């Protein structure tokens, strides 16, 4: 056999960017869900680079960080928002948790996740999923405190308002002050007691009493208890089926302007019924099961989808996603049923995209 | 104990930060090691089918085990060891895949490169179809040592085995494959090329 005849070892076929993105997205999702709970107890965290200012704070850090990032029990953490810090992620497990970030206090609802970072002294929080309540000190001489939720960016100058996100539907409820909502090039001023939604970006309405809290997360139960923090922001979102892998580029900006005092809404709710906790646990279990037993996971998703809660919707979408991932021809059917049953569901946009891809994919 | 070096210090620092749950470090580790882990899994399994799930499994195991990383090997080698273990578990728990060899007959017409590429694909798929039928440890040893061209020492390290055990597994795998290739000239010829033997 001559060298020219030699075939050589088979080449390693690379995976596409889409496949890699899916791997990464699902990996973080699994870490955040059931798989994360099985991570070993992290050693006591060492946040030396944070320069925790006082011994008292250090003690709090030592006690509360001992549970590790992936712990599922209630905990609190204190992080300095110094001039520039590396992104730091906090995930709440089955119970709420809280964290102090510079001069802000953040309460995280169960199964919520945030990433905190700071650049040039400007603190920034990315809400990956769930509900977070922010109590932020007035920004008079300080850099703006920025909260990102999906494509929405909230710049807290010193006011009190609420932003709710359910996938592409954004709702802004102003409690104190006045905000300018920038959405696709248009700016809408929203005053106290008013609400704005991305469904009708040029209109405002009387504010409901609370934003539409997704029913697959538990709202925070403990009010801010940190230092005097007059301003508060609540940013709820649905846990995305596909958590972001990087900070999104904003195309909606909410810029509050302070000084207009209004009575915070106290009654009423857009909140839908909270599903039983065991459905959430079952969904987490099925998510963890996907890799090692996809057939059972699919069967579980389909069983869970027969109900009429938000988890039914999430489970039905998951069945479609899993089937599509595995090139199962039933994917189109599941996604089609999902869109018929839940046309405005949390995963409707993703389901439409996926359905288009499935239908357009070469067989 | 490995000698201190800047690379080792970097590996240890990254592993420590990732083990502590710092997502930025976990992302960095994923980005720096993903191709190496994918390469290892691909070499053992022979296709990208199911690799998305296995990559996730491998990196979950990597993150779980990072607290035990001591820098005695490079982080890349350490991750490859876990990838090898992940592949072993995957092979052990699944039934042999049904591969339609008739569907593998690529177009062999065309220029030399195209033809050669098609030949490699056909031969490789036949090889991995045969590997599906042999014992997992032998398969892994053969894939890493013969197909990927790694040294027996390295394979022994990756599979947490002795060099003698690896050598034995490679020999048995080759013997088994040769038997299976007796009636398959494409596979027989390809095996001969990879192992340096005469075609059966």
Integer average pLDDT of chain A: 64
> Largest interface, per-chain counts?
A-B, 43 and 44 residues
Q: How far do the termini of chain B sit from each other?
A: 46 Å
Largest sheet of chain A: 16 strands, mixed
Low-confidence stretches of chain A are 39-76, 208-275
**Count of DSSP H/I helices of chain B:** 9
State the domain count of chain A: 2
Q: Roughly what percent helix of chain A?
A: 25-40%
Mean pLDDT of chain B: 84
How does the overall form of chain A come out from the CA principal axes?
Answer: globular
CATH class of the largest domain in chain A: Mainly Beta
Write out key terms for the chains shown.
heterodimer, A: 363 residues, alpha+beta, Jelly Rolls, 2 domains, 8 helices, 16 strands, 27% strand, globular, B: 200 residues, mainly alpha, Rna Polymerase Sigma Factor, Chain: A, Arc Repressor Mutant, subunit A
Can you describe this structure?
The complex is a heterodimer of chains A (363) and B (200). By secondary structure, chain A is an alpha+beta fold. Chain A folds into 2 domains: 17-257, Jelly Rolls; 277-360. In chain A, 26% of the residues lie in helices and 27% in strands. Chain A is built from 8 helices and 16 strands. Chain A has helices at 17-32, 34-37, 55-65, 277-289, 294-304, 310-325, 331-341, 348-360; strands at 76-79, 85-91, 97-101, 104-108, 113-119, 122-136, 145-149, 152-156, 160-166, 169-176, 178-183, 186-190, 194-197, 205-206, 231-237, 252-257. Chain A has a 16-stranded mixed β-sheet that branches. The two termini of chain A are 39 Å apart. Residues 39-76 and 208-275 of chain A have low confidence and may be disordered. With 200 residues, chain B is mainly α. Chain B folds into 2 domains: 6-93, RNA polymerase sigma factor, region 2, helix turn helix motif (Rna Polymerase Sigma Factor, Chain: A, Orthogonal Bundle); 101-194, Arc Repressor Mutant, subunit A (Orthogonal Bundle), CATH 1.10.10. In chain B, 70% of the residues lie in helices and 0% in strands. Chain B has 9 helices and no strands. Chain B has helices spanning 6-19, 23-45, 51-65, 75-93, 112-131, 136-147, 152-158, 163-180, 185-195. In chain B, helix 7 packs across helix 8 (163-180). The longest helix of chain B is centred in the N-terminal third of the chain and has 23 residues, at 23-45. Chain A binds chain B through residues 1, 6-15, 19-20, 22-24, 26-28, 30-31, 35, 38-40, 42-43, 45-46, 68-70, 86-89, 115, 245, 290-292, 294, 325, and chain B through 19-24, 26-27, 30, 34, 38-39, 42-43, 46-48, 51-57, 59-60, 63-64, 67, 93, 116, 119-121, 123-124, 127, 147-149, 190, 192-194.
